[in-house]
Amino acid sequence: MELVFPEPHGPAGSPYRKVESGRLNPSCVPERPTLIQVRDLRKEYSTGRGRLVLFDRLSFEVAEGELLAIVGESGAGKSTLLHILGALDTPSAGDVYCASIQLRMLSARQAASFRNREVGYVWQFHYLLPEFTAAENVAIPLLARGESRAAALKRAGEWLNEVELADRADHRAGELSGGEQQRVSLARALVTGPKVLLADEPTGDLDSRTAGVVFDLIERLHESHGLTSVIVTHNMTLADRCSRILRLEKGAMEEVSPQRM
Ligand SMILES: Nc1ncnc2c1ncn2[C@@H]1O[C@H](COP(=O)(O)OP(=O)(O)OP(=O)(O)O)[C@@H](O)[C@H]1O
Ligand SMILES: [Mg+2]
Questions:
Q1: Which of 218, 254, 216, 251 is nearest to 3 (CA)?
Q2: CA of 203 to the centre of ligand 2 (A)
Q3: Ligand 1 contact, 94 CB (< 6 A)
Q4: What confidence tens digit (pLDDT) does each residue in 219-235 have?
Q5: Are 232 and 75 in contact (CB under 8 A)?
Q6: pLDDT digits 0-9 by tens, 98-140
Q7: Span 237-248, pLDDT tens digits
Q8: Taking Cα atoms as reference points, which of 55, 121, 141 lies closest to residue 92?
Q9: Within 10 A of 100 (CB to CB), how many other CB atoms are there?
Q10: pLDDT tens track for 140-181
């Protein structure tokens, strides 16, 4: 079967330039303990045209406390990679270690527990349940792990306070603004106390001012809760605020810095 890489279908020309050689040289890796290790990762799909290889022998590390941006053209495989990091998808080959847990070795039940305890997810679209209140939405991951409704709602209230939405706790999620909904989804992602925040274009559906507000909040929560965060974004201004930017392109990862105008 022929091996093909996905054709990027984003806007022509990349706003990012390579850092020196573009390779992930050791000097780029921060001197903090590694929390996420990606080793020789491969993901492929069988399609009518042959085998679609999104990435192959992909290796990189994320240090504890890093706020890492992943950029790349549409179709490069960023969401797929994020799903693999969060044990929502499995690679075709290679390994991901998160907090020394080898994800490939987890049973379905262990993977579910890993997703509930170790990782918080935020998506471009908030996926809140519109008929439920903000507090009930935030409480869901705690209810899923068997906490009582009273305890879960109490903690949800504390988290809504963290995202400055205490006064919206009893509002239906469907009645909140886009920015408020994304703040609720951040509270839902973090209510279980994960070490890692994975966010896939968390501001992609917001206007630029609201995107800035939500990113400010991500930055503040990242710092105050000692998170390790991986943010997929197309927004160069926001990527520039991260501690490191990796670009996924044609199946390989390289470190880049934003081109300043
Ligand atoms: N189940 C699947 N079977 C075949 N191809 C798939 C499957 N899932 C994803 N793909 C393909 O893999 C490629 C990468 O998809 P992915 O969603 O990871 O890209 P992305 O970098 O997140 O893009 P975007 O920036 O548009 O969100 C796409 O070309 C997509 O069509
Ligand atoms: Mg995507």
A1: 251
A2: 12
A3: no
A4: 999 999 999 999 999 99
A5: no
A6: 988 999 999 999 999 999 999 999 998 889 999 999 999 999 9
A7: 899 999 999 999
A8: 55
A9: 8
A10: 999 999 999 999 999 999 999 999 999 999 999 999 999 999
User: Which are the contacts of 255, defined by CB distance < 8 A and separation ≥ 6?
Assistant: 18, 19, 22, 23, 24, 28, 244, 245, 246, 247
Atom of ligand 1 nearest to the CA of 248: 21
By DSSP bridging, strand 252-258 and strand 16-18 are antiparallel
Quick one: tokens of 120?
């918080």
The set of residues, in sequence order, having a beta carbon less than 8 Å from that of 199 and lying 6+ positions away, is: 121, 122, 123, 189, 218, 229, 230, 231, 232
The single-letter code of the amino acid at 220 is: R
Ligand 1 near 194 CB (within 6 A): no
Would you say the CB of residue 80 lies under 6 angstroms from ligand 1?
Answer: yes
Q: How far is the CA of 200 from the centre of ligand 1 (A)?
A: 13
Distance of CA 201 to the CA centre of its chain: 8
Q: Give the ligand at the shortest distance from the Cα of 74.
A: 1
Confidence of residue 32 (pLDDT cuts 50, 70, 90): confident
Angle at which helix 149-162 crosses helix 178-190, to 10 degrees, equals 120
Please give the torsion angle defined by the CA atoms of residues 144, 147, 148 and 153, in that order, rounded to the nearest 10 degrees: -80
Q: Name residue 150's beta-bridge partners.
A: none
Quick check: CB of 75 below 6 Å from ligand 1?
yes
